[in-house]
Amino acid sequence: MKNLKSKMGRAGDIPLLICVFALTLFGCVMIYSASSYVGRVEYGDEFFFVKKQLIGVAFGTLAFAAVQFVPPEKLIKLKYPAVAVAAVTLILVFVPGIGVTNYGATRWIGFGSFTIQPSELAKYAFVIFAAAHFSKYADKVKTFTGILPVLIVGFLFCALIIAEPNMSITMCVGLLMLAMIFLSGTNLKTFALILTPFVLAIPVLIALEPYRLQRLSAFLDPWASPKDEGYQLIQSLYALGNGGLFGVGLFNSTQKYRFLPFAESDFIMSVMGEELGFVGITVFFLVCIFIIWRGFRIARSAPTKFTFLLSAGITLVYGIQVVINALVVSGTIPPTGLPLPLISSGNTSLVITLASMGVLYGISRAH
Amino acid sequence: MSVILTITFIFFIIFARFFYIQVVWGKDLVWRATDQWNREIPVIAERGVIYDRNGNLLAGNRTTYSVFVRPNAVEDAKYAAELMAGVLNLDSAEVEKKITSRNVSEITLARQVEKQKIEELAAYGISGIYYARDNTRVYPYGDLLCQVMGFTSSDGSGVAGIEKYYDSVLSGKNGEVMYTTDIVGVETEDSEIVYREAVAGNGVRLTIDLDIQLAAEDVIKSVYVSSGAKRASCVVIDPRDFSVLAMVNYPSYDLNEVPRDDTEILNAQTRNGIVSDIYEPGSTFKIITAAADLEEYIRGNKSAFSPSYIFNSSRTRSVGGTTIKCWSDHANGKHSAQTLAQALNNSCNPCFTDIALALGTDTFYDYLSAFGLGNVTGIDFSGEALGMLVPQSLVRDCDLARIGFGQTVAVTGIQLACAAAAAVNGGNYYEPHLLKGIVSSDGRTVEERQPVVRQRVISEEASHLLAQMLEGVVSDGSGKKAYIEGYKVGGKTGTAQKYEDGHIAAGKYVSSFVGFFPSDTPQYLALVIVDEPSGSYYGSTVAAPVAREIFSDIIAIKNIQPFG
Fold first, then answer.
1. Quick check: B474 and B482 in contact, CB under 8 A?
2. What residues in A contact B22, CB-CB < 8 Å?
3. CATH number of residue B429's parent domain
4. Residue A152 contacts B, CB cutoff 8 Å
5. Residue range B499-516: average pLDDT?
6. If exposure means fewest CB atoms within 10 Å of the residue's CB, which of A350, B338, B459, B537 is most exposed?
């Protein structure tokens, strides 16, 4: 009892904790700025999106706190249940009546007005599975058969997510898979063997869905189709350009007047760039980098191989999303719908990200 | 270690990309985006006003308003449509259809709406409705000078007359009110309003003298009524520089209520006949023939007749197999043993046939061309007619013989007035004009038009001789009814038969009179044309008295003392 208490009371990585919650609150401010006009015009309430987000913040904080009671090593037991839950919910998306379609893609499952996005869950399920597998079969990671189960689960998830379709989370899981395998301690030969099909998969995926090619051409010259494929990117660039070096000031975005679609969710970084300028965006990225650095630092001193891979995986999920979002918003890669973790409006992403950060914090407390 | 390197590299790319977009490319992106952020509403520039030569206002403006609607910004279209239709007298269903159309960002619902109606509308505070300054042209004298003034279209640009000819001077530069709006045109909460002021157009000062114009309109109106003519018109010019002092065409129309809906009436009543219509001048043309003869005689041309030459008294001339008769029967000593002066007094046709034939085609055509026949005078007015003159290469003797006394030739009123003026003013042909100067909106003179001498047509000596002879026509000859004691009025009558489909139209005449005073230094010259008078049709009885009235009025208006 005394042992447990002292364990619960031990502080973890406080700077990480501060940064995570600072970003979460900063996200609420940005959501208000980006959505107050749309909220007022379309829902009659300028706080419409903020109120929704605050519910997510509450549940996310609860989740963050709740995972503190679970010793991180215990999560290894979730190896199969997590994969099962993720797989089932991903399949449920395709069941009529449960799956919810928005913007031409079926990515959500709904219970009444409550919807969740199973692909958000799948990322973490995969991380737990890969971490558990590699820690249990640490001696086999240098062989292809030792990696195979991780590949099977990864490809299963990818196949289910791409069928929604959701290109960006597929990409996310794919990158995550590569990174986890790399971190498992496998040798370069095996890694190269696995990498090859990924590289080959890109043209196949594009050929599979012609709209991706359109997006690709729109991304190369958005002004060729300013009303269609190029529209979103152009609006994002206008926002960033309008921001300039120092920004137009908080709440002063012009693009939020319904010019920029998804201003409060996937493209919230454009509004940040517009209102806070390059300087503000730079500060934001530095905070992100700091979180990533703390994450890897926690991983490096993690007590077990499982917690090492788990904390590295969580950090990677966060980092990959930030990077992809930044590349999309700046028109560096073709537009895909991916939230900016901790900032974008969207509760599934927020609650799960906070929960994962809770796990990361928990691991930092364990050593 | 490799992980740190990878992350550093990736973020370096991201930083570089954002720096490029936000700092390097930023200005260009903002410039591209400006268009979608703003909506403009035009502010119509105040149209320049039109004055007479003495600064009397002939065309001004009343401030009215345009009503614009941004369909996307209207909240309750049905309610808004009913309200606006009610105030603006429009069809409510039509308005609703217009303001619910989603593919236009902005429509102009009404123009030239009175201020009081705008205030009424504004009081309802309907969203999505905008007002901007507009002009409504106001012509304080109604139908005065209407065919010369012309009118503007509903969008305020000149479509006829001076309004059209000097549109670029009058129209000014429209301004703009700019709002920032959201994507569908709803004004944003802290919408900046950028205002570019409209630049008012310059005013135009005409050569027209309002008092003379008013008097001439009255006189022409009454001859139109009393003679039962189809049309009556006149032009008064200053022979010293060919500036137009008055120009009247009757019937006329009210400039404030242009008959836009009836094309036929519009075409008939808005036509400036003095400049755009041609007619056979008849005997007024003899001034030109006489001028040519006198000038040639003075220059020593042996073919020309001296002022003391006695013309053959026969009533007829046989030319190229045709017989040309005088309008008079020459019985009982009429038109016998005439000099040129007497031939003018009597308006005897054969004498002028003799002159035209004696001078010959080449010489006579040189004069016709110098006097501007068969060509535009170049007056600053759109739609000037050329007149009709048989081409020199095709003209036969029998044509030449008739041209001598004003047949087989057609002229515009302005052509004949200018030719007569050049014949009696000392021999200079000026470019006729309606513009005296351009004034800025705050009343400063921007430009003053200087007289332009086109060419000298006859010598001063010939001109004076001719003017004396024409004074004789009024004092002793066919122009007696234009005579005013003590004012040395000169002039010439004209009575021409009208042609229809190439044949003489029985009973249809154009009666005209061209007169001027004082004959030794002419200051006023008037041409009166009465088209198809019923009853008396001689220029001497129908048109000459009209000229006399106009001159009397001018004398009274200008308080001119009798000449010694």
1. yes
2. 240-241, 243-245, 273, 277-278, 281
3. 3.40.710.10
4. no
5. 88
6. B459
Taking the CA atoms of residue A140, residue A143, residue A149 and residue A154 in that order, the dihedral angle to the nearest 10 degrees is 120
Q: Which residues of A touch B178 (CB under 8 A)?
A: none
Could you tell me the CA-to-CA distances from B285 to B238, B344, B514 in Å, in that order?
19, 11, 10
Distance CA A184, CA A299 (A): 12
Q: Note whether A98 contacts B: Cβ–Cβ < 8 A.
A: no
> Are B532 and B229 contacting, i.e. CB atoms less than 8 angstroms apart?
yes
Q: Do A241 and B37 touch (CB under 8 A)?
A: no
Closest CB to A241 among B25, B36, B37: B25
For A270, counting Cβ atoms within 10 Å of its Cβ (0-12 exposed, 13-18 middle, 19+ buried), the class is buried
User: B239 and B112: one domain?
Assistant: no
Tell me the C-alpha distance between B179 and B41, whole Å.
8
Question: How far is it, in rounded angstroms, from Cα A224 to Cα A219?
Answer: 10
- Per-residue confidence band for B333, with pLDDT thresholds at 50, 70 and 90: confident
- CB contacts < 8 Å between A and B, how many? 96
Q: Which helix (H) or strand (E) holds A65?
A: helix A48-66
Residues B314 and B449 in one domain: yes
A259 vs B26: CB contact, 8 Å cut-off? Answer: no
Residue A132 token pair = 């558990």
The verdict on ipTM greater than 0.85 is yes
Flag whether B336 is in a domain.
yes
A254-283: pLDDT as tens digits: 888 888 888 898 999 999 999 999 999 999
User: What is the mean predicted confidence (pLDDT) over A286-302?
Assistant: 94
CATH classification of the domain holding B82: 3.90.1310.10
Assign A200 a pLDDT band (cuts: 50, 70, 90). Answer: confident
Structure tokens at A181: 């395998």
What would the DSSP string read from start to end of A103-115? Answer: TTEEEEEEETTEE
> Do B91 and B238 belong to one domain?
no
Q: What's chain B's average pLDDT?
A: 91
Report residue B286 as tokens. 């003899």
Minimal Cα–Cα distance from A240 to chain B, Å? Answer: 5
Domain shared by B270 and B378, yes or no: yes
Domain end among B71, B103, B134: B134
Nearest by Cα to B202 from B44, B380, B62, B49: B49
Helix (H) or strand (E) segment spanning residue B64: strand B57-69
In a domain, B120, yes or no: yes
Q: Is the dihedral of CA A55, A267, B106, B99 positive or negative?
A: negative
DSSP secondary structure letters along B286-308:
HHHHHHHHHHHHHTT-TTSPPTT
Q: Are B48 and B200 contacting, i.e. CB atoms less than 8 angstroms apart?
A: yes
What residue in A sits closest to B11 (Cα-Cα)? A323
Does any CB of chain A come closer than 8 Å to the CB of residue B18? yes
Burial category of A273 from C-beta neighbours within 10 Å (exposed 0-12, middle 13-18, buried 19 and up):
buried
Q: Closest chain B residue to A312 measured between Cα atoms? A: B3
For residue B70, what are the domain limits? 63-134
Contacts of B14 in chain A (CB under 8 A): 285, 323, 326-327, 330, 332
Whether residue B182 and residue A41 make contact (CB cut-off 8 A), yes or no, is yes
Is B17 inside any structural domain?
A: no
Same domain, yes or no: B232 and B110: no
Residue bearing tokens 């895909």? A336
Note whether residue B157 is domain-resident. Answer: no
Read off the pLDDT of residues A48-62 as tens digits, 9 standing for 90 and up: 999 999 999 999 999
Total domains in the fold of chain B: 2
Averaged confidence pLDDT in chain A: 87
B539 shares its domain with B429: yes
